[in-house]
């Protein structure tokens, strides 16, 4: 009996193959295909720029500049890295350069004085129930989460966005932001704990009031 | 039996991020797991932190302003066109620039060569002199001559060599006996010079 070859229909693998094909086409000079290549990552690129610049207009401009730079340097991209990581790193570089240009040395120094020393103690210890991901369908919830994130100090927000939203690993985050792995870990811990407390406070204000929690419990 | 080390709440909070990253040794992880089983406060911190990561890592949290995509597409299209124009120019410019550079370098090399080899500023290089023409040089002169040239009479330490060897050694052609090979002769033919000799082919002189 003839052996039958089983072909698994893996959408992720198909997308990756498609992406690789697009990269090669653009590298051969088909620049018109570049937008198709980066479209799946455009929001991530914008979010990375916004995390560093905190200004929507600047973030959009830097996101566009970063994409143009990626297009100009597409032949230097090697398949050892993920394409999305490469794009994010270019964006972070562009955003950091923009910020350096626009900030005075004094402001930079003041920000750098706020170090990572001292421990962060969680404030809220309520019973926890998982927030269903459907909550994110509500614009109000997304807005509150974005506001909580925006309220973090720059250094905590950057690390949190790169690691937990952009999905860079610890090492990649350190390289992209030009800080040590130890600093990434310290800042990430603080960012996560601070957001947890901020969102617990949000529960008190009824952000998640329409979600199906049991009576007497909080999300955390 | 595993000997668990005890950890307190502060240690757990300090390590909670590494715990979620899976970035700790097995012993510490087991100790923290044990702590979570007995400490509701720390279990709450763990669950809340995990919730934060899960919510923020959702694609829906990555929002861009309205119209961001179309504006980006337009800008990239402009960039792609500009790059294509530049590529077309570059495709021509690069080889043309390379050729121009080579020409400049060659010319410069020739000038340098001439400047170094011609010992007299009034000398002419004599590019048309046959390389294997037998000539005569004198140790105390900068000029090479055809044997019999009137201007070599009375010179001492004469040596015979080819015109190429003489030029390589820095000698310049005599403007009289080499007149026919030079672009311009500074002197009129001299009756004392045996021009016939100068015009002889090298083979006939050997």
What does this 3D model show about the protein?
- The complex is a heterodimer of chains A (220) and B (206).
- With 220 residues, chain A is mainly α.
- Chain A has 10 helices and no strands.
- Chain A has helices at residues 11-27, 34-38, 42-53, 56-72, 83-102, 105-113, 139-150, 154-165, 170-177, 181-204.
- The longest helix of chain A is centred in the last third of the chain and has 24 residues, at 181-204.
- Residues 1-7 and 211-220 of chain A have low confidence and may be disordered.
- A 4-stranded mixed sheet of chain B has the order 3-1-2-4.
- Chain B is of the alpha+beta class and 206 residues long.
- The radius of gyration of chain B is 45 Å and the shape is elongated.
- Chains A and B meet through α2, α3, α4, α7 and α8 of A and α1, α3 and α4 of B.
Tell me briefly what this model is.
The complex is a heterodimer of chains A (220) and B (206). Chain A is an all-alpha fold and 220 residues long.
Tell me, what is the CATH class of the largest domain in chain A? Answer: Mainly Alpha
- The structure class of chain B reads alpha+beta
Instruction: Summarize the biggest pleated sheet of chain B.
Output: 4 strands, mixed
Number of helices of chain A: 10
Tag the structure with descriptive keywords.
heterodimer, A: 220 residues, Rna Polymerase Sigma Factor, Chain: A, Arc Repressor Mutant, subunit A, 10 helices, globular, B: 206 residues, alpha+beta, 4-stranded mixed β-sheet, 52% helix, elongated
């Amino acid at each position: 009996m003839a052996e039958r070859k089983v072909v698994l229909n893996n959408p992720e693998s198909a997308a990756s193959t498609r992406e690789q094909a697009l990269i090669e086409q653009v590298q051969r000079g088909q620049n018109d295909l570049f937008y198709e290549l980066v479209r799946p990552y455009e929001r991530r690129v914008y979010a990375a720029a916004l995390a560093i610049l905190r200004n929507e207009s600047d973030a959009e401009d830097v996101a566009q500049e970063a994409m143009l730079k990626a297009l100009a340097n597409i032949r230097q991209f090697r398949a050892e890295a993920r394409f999305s990581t490469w794009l994010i790193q270019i964006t972070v570089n562009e955003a950091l350069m923009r910020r350096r240009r626009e900030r005075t040395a004094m402001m930079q120094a003041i920000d750098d004085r706020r170090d990572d020393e001292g421990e962060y103690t969680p404030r809220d210890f309520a019973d926890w129930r998982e927030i269903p991901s459907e909550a994110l369908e509500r614009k109000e919830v997304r807005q509150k989460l974005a506001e909580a994130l925006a309220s973090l100090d720059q250094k905590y927000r950057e690390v949190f966005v790169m690691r937990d939203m952009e999905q860079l690993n610890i090492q990649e985050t350190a390289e992209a932001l030009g800080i040590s792995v130890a600093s990434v870990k310290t800042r990430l811990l603080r960012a996560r704990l601070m957001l947890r407390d901020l969102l617990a406070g949000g529960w008190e204000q009824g952000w998640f009031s329409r979600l199906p929690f049991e009576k007497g419990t909080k999300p955390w | 039996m595993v000997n668990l080390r005890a950890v307190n709440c502060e240690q757990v909070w300090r390590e909670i991020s590494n715990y979620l990253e899976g970035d700790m040794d097995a012993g510490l992880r087991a100790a923290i797991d044990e702590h979570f089983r007995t400490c509701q406060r720390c279990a709450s911190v763990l669950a809340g932190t995990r919730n934060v990561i899960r919510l923020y890592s959702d694609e829906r949290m990555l929002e861009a302003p309205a119209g961001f995509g179309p504006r980006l597409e337009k800008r990239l299209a402009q960039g792609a066109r500009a790059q294509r124009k530049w590529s077309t120019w570059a495709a021509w410019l690069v080889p043309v620039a390379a050729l121009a550079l080579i020409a400049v370098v060659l010319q410069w090399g020739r000038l340098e060569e001439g400047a170094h080899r011609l010992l007299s500023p009034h000398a002419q290089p004599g590019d048309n002199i046959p390389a294997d023409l037998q000539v005569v040089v004198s140790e105390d002169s900068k000029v090479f001559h055809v044997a019999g040239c009137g201007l070599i009479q009375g010179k001492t330490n004469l040596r015979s060599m080819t015109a190429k060897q003489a030029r390589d050694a820095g000698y310049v052609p005599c403007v009289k006996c080499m007149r026919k090979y030079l672009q311009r002769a500074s002197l009129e033919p001299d009756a004392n010079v045996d021009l016939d000799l100068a015009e002889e082919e090298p083979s006939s002189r050997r």
